[in-house]
Amino acid sequence: MKFVAAVFLFLMVFALPAIADAASSDQTDGWGVNVNGTFFVPLEETLEWMGEDATCLSGKQVFLLRGGKGYPMEKDKFFIVQAITQQKDYNSRGKIISRFAPKPFAMVSLRALAEFFGYEIKTYSNFVVMVGNQKEITFIQKDYLQFHFHGLRGQGRFADFVFPISGAGHGYKTPRGWFWVYYKHKNHRSSKYPRPHGGASMPYSLFFYQGTAYHVGIVGAASHGCIHGRRSDAIKLWQIAPTKTLVCVSG
Fold this sequence. Notes:
Largest sheet: 16 strands, mixed
Shape: globular
Radius of gyration: 23 Å
Number of strands: 21
Oligomer: single chain
Order of helices and strands: HEEHEEEEEEEHEEEEEEEEEEEHE
Strand order of the largest sheet: 10-11-12-1-2-9-6-16-21-13-14-15-20-19-18-17
């Protein structure tokens, strides 16, 4: 027993410096998504690591800054994610409450970013490495949730999982663009539909934009803006798609 304790103490003494060095090294894990062959990464997170700067104006244009001058990125080199994030706030009585507030962010082409600032890119099967200024960062590839419509009906995809969906009917609209899954609720009920008092069942809801969610519903039946999916598909997607998953709605 004393021998085991002595060995453990020896390993801790000699291993701790190595662990500390590894923790303080320049190698960091980032993340991104592969969209039609182009690898996109979060702009602010990546530039913070690079020590560079950028600004996003009006939520429609990204400017990279160099030498005090702004250079606009080409439209196909970035997209803006309409993110809804949970934030702490105070009510009129001074009590802390949670609320959801919009906070859009930009995803940019890693290759375009590297070329602009003079970094090198190494591409592998499921991750990308960027090297420059005597440091490197590894970007792990994540899956994103896709919803594509042909009229009312459409198709959803998450990695290799493909499933049928339907969206908004006449007079209503399912939002298009890039979003962020900000909230999951297994047994959600609508506060608005059916009118006038609400209460409509929305099982296995994945909320991605201002009360709009993917949830269990009749595929082929028009919604008030949400995306309907079959129960078996919604349950599976609920299990594999975490919050902070990127969502692309097109068509």
